[in-house]
Amino acid sequence: MNQHSIQDEPLIKFIVPKFHKRLAWIIPFLIIAIGIGISVTAQNWGWLSRAGALVVVIAMYFEATGIIEKYNEFVIRHTRLPDDALDRVLTEVKRMPYMYGLSGNETEDQLNQIAAKAIKERSRKVIAAARITANKEIREIEF
What we know:
The chain has 6 helices and no strands. It has 143 residues and is mainly α. It folds into 2 domains: 16-65, no CATH class; 70-143, no CATH class. The radius of gyration is 24 Å and the shape is rod-shaped. It starts with 8 loop residues before the first helix and ends with a helix. Mean pLDDT is 79; it is low at 1-12.
C-alpha cells in the first residue's frame, strides 16, 4: 500500500469490549458459585446441578436466538465513516489517478463521483471484514 493511501486497518479492526468478555465469564461463574453456596447451605448438591443447567440454558438461548450476532450487526450498521473520509479519498484520487484508471483530464464532478464510489466499495469491504472479525471474537468467548 502506498504511503499516501488511506489505511483500512483501523477501520477493519473490530474488538469486542473487554467488559463484555469479562461479563461473559463472570455471569456463569457467579451462577455456579451461588449454586455451590446454596448446595453447601442446604446440604443438597442438586442445587449445583440446577445452577449448571441454568448456565447451559442461558448459553443455548443466546446461541439459538442469535442475540449476540444481532447486537454486533446493529453496531456495525450504525458505525459511521470519519467526517473527512471523502476528502481523504478525493486527495488520494487526485494524487494517484493511475490507481483509478484515470487519464488526468477529469472534471471535479467526475473526481467526486469516483471518490464516492471508492468510499462505498471500501465501506463494503470494511463491514465484511468487521463481521468476520466480530464473529471470530465472539466464538472465542462463547461456550
